[in-house]
Amino acid sequence: MRRSWRGLLCLTVGLAGCLGDESGRDPFAPRNPFRDERRFDPSSAPVASAKAATQVHTVGSAVVAANSADLPSKPLFLTIGLPEPMVFHQGAGQIVVSEGLVNRCTSDAELAAVICHELGKIAVEHPAKSAPRPERDLPPPSPTTPDVVGATYSADMTRVAEEAMFDRRNPRPTRGAHEPGPDPGTLAHNFYVKAGHPVDQFDRVSGLIKEAEDNAEKRDLMRSRP
To answer: Given CA atoms 152, 154, 157, 162 in this order, what sign does their dihedral have?
Structure first.
């Protein structure tokens, strides 16, 4: 009888030790296979070659330097050794490019176009602080007194005409309305031109960019390769 109780006690302790590793998870609840998947982490991805990493850093840094005034921050560039073309950003501080994408670009100009497309999306998602509306308005009027005591109109009729002209050209948004945001493609094109690259090569990589973006959307399902 004592042996049976000792055996039962050992079995209970052993099960308790095994269940303790589940961090409070109900041992009888069905396991979610997606929750336990290891998510894609760029830092754990295969290391890219020094040549590809240097090319991305050189081209990307030059584009950022030429457009620093129009960017919310200066992102860092991380090149990973995946053979699939891939590009994405994490916040406004990092752009991830795969070596497969670098190898598909036939020139630095094409690689710059890819980077500019990503910078355009960053600039839209993380806009730099713009000047408040009053700073973009006309300068404040000089203090004047009405011609007639108690009059409600200004004595400076030139100022009145200037304000009317300005309001027609720059209508103020109505309450609850939002000013239209910039187009990321237009921003990318401007970044590309400002960096000194030939305009005719900007659209050559549109198909490659689409493929790289599609792969980036699947990056959470990819596994780092040994």
So the answer is: negative
